[in-house]
Amino acid sequence: MSDMDKIVEVYISRETAQLETTSFNIPLLMVTLPDAGGNPAVITQRTFVFTDLKGVEDKFGPGSVAAAMTRPLLSGQNRPPQFVIGVKNTAETYIEALNKVQEENNSWYILMSDSKVSANILLLAAWIQAQRKMYAASTADADVLFPTGDQDIGSRLKDMAYDRTFWLYHAQAETEHPECAWVGSQIIEVPGSNTWAFKQASGITRSEERRVGKEC
Description:
The protein is α/β, with parallel strands linked by helices. Helix content is 28%, strand content 14%. A 6-stranded mixed beta sheet has the order 2-3-1-4-5-6, with helices on both faces.
């Protein structure tokens, strides 16, 4: 046998899982289903895909949190062609429910949650940091405007160096969900083709906060 017969061709390839481009257009709204008769809601389906507000209102009700988050998401001239609503019950943590949501439907890219509680924001930010996804949050905690320490949610997120979470302040964040309006108006843009800075959120009341104190 000649030396040439011993040559082995070796091909090395480095394949990295890629999100489909269309996935960048799909937001996820995470909502908590209300208790039924004092017991956690029974959930047989974790995710629902919608294209308009009517479908959400028919499924969850016009006065539901799901509808309240959908309205600003679709309030601008630009809007996502479809979006996912994921559900949890009150007996679950957001992380427990989100893991189940992801198992059922992993097509979405940007997460928004009905909870504006700092502890939940931190948990969701930690979870999303390990994913190829983003998380948009909002808070009504005025401490983020004029932080005097490092315990406000903005400072804590910065200290953790979470680069897959972005957030904003709004005095009515609990009810108006301004992050949904921001995401809804920008998510359809081709990634890298625009900046999200200085964009006005449609359908959200103006929130003005000023520091009150003595002048020296």
